[in-house]
Design a protein that fits this description.
heterodimer; A: about 160 residues; alpha+beta; Ubiquitin-like (UB roll); DNA polymerase, domain 1; 2 domains; 5-stranded mixed beta sheet; 5 strands; B: about 750 residues; Aldehyde Oxidoreductase, domain 4; 3 domains; about 25% helix; globular
Chain lengths: ~160, ~750
Amino acid sequence: MKKIIALNVNEIPYELAVEPNRSLADVLRYDLGLTGTKKGCGIGDCGVCTVLMGGKPVFSCLVLAVEAQDHDILTIEGVAKGPELHPIQKAFVEKGAIQCGFCTPGMVLNALALLNKNADPTEHDIRLALSGSLCRCTGYQKIVEAVKTAADMMKRSGIIEEEAE
Amino acid sequence: MEKTWRNDAYAKVTGQALYTNDLAFPDMLHAVPVYADYVHAIIDQIHIQDAEDLDGVVKVITSQDIPGSNRHGQIEKDYRIFADDKIRYWGDVVALVVARDRKTAIEAAELVKVEATPLPSIHDPEAALKPDAILIHEEHGSNIINTHRIRRGDIEKGFDASDIIIEHKFQTQFVEHAYLEPEAALAVPRADGVIEIHGSMQHPFSTRRFTAALLGMRLSDVEVVGTPMGGGFGGKDDTAAVVCARTALAAKLLGKPVKVNYDREWSIRESYKRHPYRVTYKMGLSSDGLIKAVRCEIIADGGAYCSTTPWVTWRSTVQCCGPYQVDHVHCDTVGVYTNNVFTGAMRGFGSPQMNFVVEQMVELAAEKVGMSAVELRRKNMVQQGSATITGQVLDNHTVSMGEVLNAVIEDIDYDEKLKQCSFGKPEGDELYGIGLAMSYRGMSLGAEGADFCAAIINAQFDGSILLEVGIHENGQGAESAFILALAAELGVNRERIRYRQSSTSSIPDSGTTVASRGTLMGTGAVVRAADEFKKKMSQVVAPSLKCNPEEVHFKDDRLHGGQSDHSISFDRAIRVMYLNRKFPFAFGEFQGPSVTWDEKQGRGKPYFTWVYGCQAIELTVNKQTGRVKLLNAIAAHDVGRVVNPGMLNGQIYGGIAMGSGYALSEEVQLDAGKITNLNLNNYRILRSTDVPEMKAIVIENRDPNSPFGAKGIGEPTNEIMAPAIANAVYRATGKRFFNLPIKIDAQNGS
């Protein structure tokens, strides 16, 4: 029996009828056409389905769409505002952190969640934040470099300010 | 050249890039494969009625529905696209269920029942070689897929002349490519009768060939269109092409678009793996460390089908002594059928296994001789003008074995760090070790097959340029590399060049995008096309530049006259072409220089050029847990000429990571032919927290055999990290590991 749910994805409200056992990943991809969210394993191990839910990275293949109600969902399509890339995306492009690109959306979203709460991450922080996403092409080196570069760019441009704790 | 650039970076970083499974067509159907829970059995009957009766199911396709040929194979046509007579491995597909939605198709697949009579199955390649072993392919007459050999010098004399003889046995594992995007295909019957295929495969031309054969159509009736692809690593050759062919069959039979998208479990179950090898290796040396003789026996588990086993094992045979000169070599290689998952191409293609053996053997030998392993390598490695073990004289390119070795040793301060190695000494829990390995690698296909490639340059009236090359974009950045190469050749800004979406119907069959041949062959064709293009333009433009056509040169988006000051912009020159009724269009083809091979003796010039690489790793082994921590990796590779620096480094790093996983964590586990680790939770590839810090040293000795000067990096970077790690683990623990993956027991660090 389908259930009517309200989803807020990339700041756009949707009302949808979904099966209660339907995953957020499937709803994003096949109901909303947001195919930037990928599927690679279906069990929360590869990270290509990563989206931000209330600012935190989740494996959208393991989240039921009905559970995603009342949370703000951010997918890769919502990271850039307009044609201008987000600094993290810019850094991925400039640093050559992209090869086949299948892990890229998840990597960018993991990086965004990290930099939103930690403006000045160490390399270890970065590697830890990315560890839920697999990459088979790059060896992660350039992705890590890109996140470092993005942190610098964001600090310079004042997108994030170091929070006094 | 700029540091790094990709034509698809913006689309990939914003989620706009559409991969096969992101595409949809109106009235599209969904299909899923059906497997049978057998590893070796005679198929008695396939019951499809219950599945077909399920609401939403459109058709269940079996071998009965094939208009063309069910038999497939790049070398031996021993694979059935739909299993008909027997099940030969657990991943054989017996049917394809087509339904209105994927969920229904999956449900219906459970309702397909296969009645079969089980046969004894073989999972050990040595058992498969026994004379009374049951045959996997009766018509083949034996379980031997192929053999290769090398007979050089006189092996007995070689050992007689040796002061030191060592012999060891090695074993390697089944390895999964683990491309992040599982197999996917979308086939669309077009208005003109053509079946159009979008698929995640690295081999558009053979996908077209297999599809046309299955459908009983001509090659021109099938068009395979380039689609962004989430990784291949050699693994999206046979299986991925067959997934496309089955999908196309469904689209053809039903007259509607059909999509197939694999779950990870299906992908790991069905797709071929890297061959496990059993190698017995005997090496004889003089007391001063000169390798005199090598006897080598290689048994490769080919699994249920031939696939590329003869070619994979051929490379292993040709490179069975690593980059060392040996006068007396006796090598016997055999590829064997078993009922295991079949094995085929994977990044490295027979070299990772052999390098794991050879690069430990030289270190074991050095220890016996009592000299440093680096010195022993230097003493025996190929030099400019050396003859390889197959008698190829390396004189047509720069032999840079020593150069790459020195680069790594200096950069990582190898000699100093050797002194710090723990060798299992008792104090402290973290044992430290450093290790290195090196290799040479024959480029491209070599004597495996026809090696030629096409490129088309088509400039438009406004000066923009469309480029297409017969090499496929697997995610490695091939398109970007070709755009950059053309920009360099024409002396224009890359922004005016766009890569035309590639299609098997628009460019001649340029072979497979494998064997690290993409950059070499593709830029070769680009250079040839650019030469033709410039010649055409020069002829038209020369009079206005007050020079001869031969004197026109292309620079800074302008065409310049020889000695004269005259020049015109590229845009204007293109307009002049059109106004003179001359198309600024060129076709170029590059054919790899000739190679030779004598299979009987294992002699000849198997590859037209070679690359050289060396990698080193520092690591610690925790004595209590046995856990290996990779600290720092350095790689030096001679790539001929750099095309796209950032992408080049990225490939080097990716190869180090994949090679590290090969050494330490990756193993497809089979229980009597059934894979027990079918997903990425228990098939472990390395994560961002597992990989070492990496550095790439790039050496450029432009290769005269490559028109652009560039060679390749995809496989060279993925074939030596495992032995480097094995050597480092030895220096940490004092223990040698002869099997992959390296499993170190907890508590004793051994």
